[in-house]
Amino acid sequence: MADNAANLGEGLRIGEVSFTPIQSSPYIAPYRMKFIQNDKKRVWDCVKAHDSLSILLFNTSTKELVIVKQFRPAVYARKLFDKLEKEGTMDLSKLSELTEIKQDSLCNSREGITYEVCAGLVDKNKPLEEIAQSEAWEECGYRVPLENIKKFNSYLSSLGLSATKHTMFYAEVTNEMRVGTGGGLTTEQEEIEVLHLSLGAARHLLWDETRFKSCGLCLAITWFLTTQDMKLYD
Ligand SMILES: O=c1ccn([C@@H]2O[C@H](COP(=O)(O)OP(=O)(O)O[C@H]3O[C@H](CO)[C@@H](O)[C@H](O)[C@H]3O)[C@@H](O)[C@H]2O)c(=O)[nH]1
Ligand SMILES: [Mg+2]
């Protein structure tokens, strides 16, 4: 891979971290479901969240998979919580009291960096293929014709928490279709790095525990290597 574990997060500065309870959010709504299961009363705490989709791009000009790397607050926060719990400076019930965390108690920003398939929320009333097409442009800089975009799987994720539906798309692209830099929407403060992975690097990334990756990325790479790779080289 072009990047290496040692320079992960270089140039990324995370500071002034604080936590507050959520009053209302355009992204999630926590709720409690009460029900009777086989005559027993049960209660389960859940989160209503948007469905999502991802689009795995394969550049046939360079024979590389195109994926994204970005800072994920929840990934960083879980590392920070682990650290504060170990230091005895926090217990989970007091999360909303963590209004300010000293800069020297913070984790290295690399602890929040993830590798993922180009992905987005389904928060617009548009065909999924069109949302996938927009994400490929905004995040990776590829103008992908709609007819290249093929659905290959879907699943429910975070089953114990939200059961949001994730739909997976695949598209073959060429160098000529890369007419932008990607990087995400500045209006949404996205800062996304585009990575072009050789198939060897993709195979290696699957089992590299020094990098945080989504399950969706592992599934998409595995799908590609077991179903598409052979077709392309036959
Ligand atoms: O609390 C939030 C949540 C979202 N955003 C904004 O909303 C954008 C959402 O970006 P989008 O690319 O549409 O979604 P992703 O964050 O990439 O999430 C996708 O990728 C994740 C990892 O695969 C999946 O978990 C998600 O379900 C899937 O939608 C973010 O960049 C932010 O700009 C915020 O500012 N605050
Ligand atoms: Mg995204």
Automatic annotation (TrEMBL):
GO terms for cellular component: cytoplasm. Keywords: Cytoplasm, Hydrolase, Magnesium. It is found in: Cytoplasm. The keyword Magnesium applies. InterPro entries: NDP_pyrophosphatase, NUDIX_hydrolase-like_dom_sf, NUDIX_hydrolase_dom. Residues 48-219 form the Nudix hydrolase domain. Gene3D superfamilies: Nucleoside Triphosphate Pyrophosphohydrolase. It catalyses: UDP-sugar + H2O = UMP + alpha-D-aldose 1-phosphate. Its main location: cytoplasm. Its EC number is 3.6.1.45. Signal peptide: none annotated. One of its GO terms (molecular function) is UDP-sugar diphosphatase activity. GO terms for biological process: nucleoside phosphate metabolic process; ribose phosphate metabolic process. The keyword Phosphoprotein does not apply. Its cofactor is Mg(2+). Hydrolyzes UDP-glucose to glucose 1-phosphate and UMP and ADP-ribose to ribose 5-phosphate and AMP. The physiological substrate is probably UDP-glucose. Poor activity on other substrates such as ADP-glucose, CDP-glucose, GDP-glucose and GDP-mannose. PANTHER family: UDP/ADP-SUGAR PYROPHOSPHATASE, URIDINE DIPHOSPHATE GLUCOSE PYROPHOSPHATASE NUDT14. Homodimer. NCBIfam families: nudix-type nucleoside diphosphatase, YffH/AdpP family. This is Uridine diphosphate glucose pyrophosphatase NUDT14.
